[in-house]
Amino acid sequence: MDTVWLGFLGGLVAMAATTLGAVPVLIGRTMSQRTSDTMLGFAAGVMLSASYFSLILPGIEAAEGLYESLLLAALVAGAGIALGAGFVAWLNATLPHEHFFTGPEGGGDAAAMARIWLFVIAITIHNFPEGLSIGVAFGGGDMTNGLSVMTGISLQDMPEGLAVAVALVGRGYSRWRAFFVAFLTGLVEPVGAFFGAAAVSVSANLLPWGLTFAAGAMLYIISHEILPETHRNGHQDRATAGLIFGLILMMVLDVTLG
Length: 258
Fold this sequence. Notes:
258 residues; two-stranded antiparallel sheet; 9 helices
């Protein structure tokens, strides 16, 4: 149970990062779009590196130990990645939600729902798999992997929390209410982390599937949401530089600390 609670605590850290990111809105300060895009690019690089070094490679290693075949281990990893990405894609297509710039997506009658909840659902779609990734990384018993994934996701959550709060203030919500909604969007992360850590702690056979599933979910979020957002406002050069720097930094930390 120690790894389960470590995963849960890791999810709490990510939730706190989301909340911390929204704090500037309470004091009337906002981050420039250029800085926000650079930070999101950096966070995407960290998450890419964490996905590969902290989730996919350990997943392949765990699968090879179970099945005694490198080819089978690679196929299991590929299937896990595809399932994780497919799961988030299914959530994205099924749940009614609204993105800040691209507008409504998903099924259901989005027009009948309060817009504030559309934003909550949109960020929840992102945050649950992120929490799941943290829990699976800690649940595998490798503290370094858990810390790497938690760090990458927490870095991404800070500008995301600010984006939620700023967007809601821009739509007429009070600063405190916008801050509270940003806090709510982070609540699902410790829940996802708990379930992820518990699942892989139940059986070693689930570990390679859990690790690569979490990696696939993260990769979908990076490609579908974070990277397009960083390129939307003409700051793609800075965002790309941030991504490369974040990837290199997390790679060095993963390799040297792992």
